[in-house]
Amino acid sequence: MISSVSSPPRGAHRHRPEATPYVDLTRSEWSALRDKTPLPLTAAEVEKVRGLGDVIDLDEVRDIYLPLSRLLNLYVGATDGLRGALNTFLGNTGERAAQTGTPFVIGVAGSVAVGKSTVARLLQALLSRWPEHPRVERVTTDGFLLPTKELQARGLMSRKGFPESYDRRALTRFVADIKAGKDEVTAPVYSHLIYDIVPGERLVVRRPDILIVEGLNVLQPALPGKDGRTRVGLADYFDFSVYVDARAEDIERWYLNRFRKLRATAFQDPSSYFRKYTQVSEEEALDYARTTWRTINKVNLLENVAPTRGRATLVVRKGPDHKVQRLSLRKL
């Protein structure tokens, strides 16, 4: 006798898992993917790259960032192979084929105070240990913020960090030039001490194997031109991207803790733009920090930064203790 499965009653629905381009992994599942990759960093080296307030340690590096460096190394190799196939198709050989080689570009996005700078520095340190690509450069988008005078003239000082506060054309051109294999590309330099672009100072990048671009809005799609036509955006040049995620409530707490520590250290410098917050009580200073978070950083996170999360290749989700709990890797 052959049994059959009856159809569900009219109006009933079978449960189907939500379609998603990501595969979700727990911390332990992700950690197992590092295979036999050795840990090339010491505790002292991790301490050097750790951001203020970040609790990252060797276990976090071993469990989270070592597997990521292995994955990225595989991506770099696969991209090189694809480039070789393209050169074969185009008939490029010898010197002409070598000229078409381009750096592998990684974008790292996330909120203020979420720890994306630490992630970018760790990736730089780990990836430069792989013999296939020793030249790894890191650039932050802070250097492409409009100078303070320009922000003031446009009424954007209270929107600093929002997409419109950057010279997005110059930033995209900078990455495009590196991707095109130019021998030398320069970028402006930003100082957190003076809270502005440093006049006359430039960062020089010379043909890296890998470039890491870190910033709040690096995954923003390109805006249409005045003619309505779609332009090429910064993220279009990325070969891989990471979004560092956490609950807004946790990020606010980390932001305030970092502000307290900076008030006791860097803000004490007489040249610091924020020295004025060392001249008032801690509670008054923290009131300013809370207002800044609520009216600027949180608004930017919710309106501009978080909506780009779905464009990332990998989403790294942190828990309240700053440690990574889950990861989502794009599979499609």
Automatic annotation (TrEMBL):
Q: Which SUPFAM superfamilies match?
A: P-loop containing nucleoside triphosphate hydrolases
The organism of origin for this protein: Streptomyces silvensis
Q: Which residues bind ATP?
A: 110-117
The protein's annotated catalytic reaction(s) are: (R)-pantothenate + ATP = (R)-4'-phosphopantothenate + ADP + H(+)
Taxonomy, superkingdom: Bacteria
Q: What is its EC number?
A: 2.7.1.33
Task: Please give the NCBIfam families that the UniProt record associates with this protein.
Answer: panK_bact (TIGR00554)
Q: In which pathway does it act?
A: Cofactor biosynthesis; coenzyme A biosynthesis; CoA from (R)-pantothenate: step 1/5
Looking at its record, which EC class is this enzyme?
transferase
Could you identify this protein by its name? Pantothenate kinase
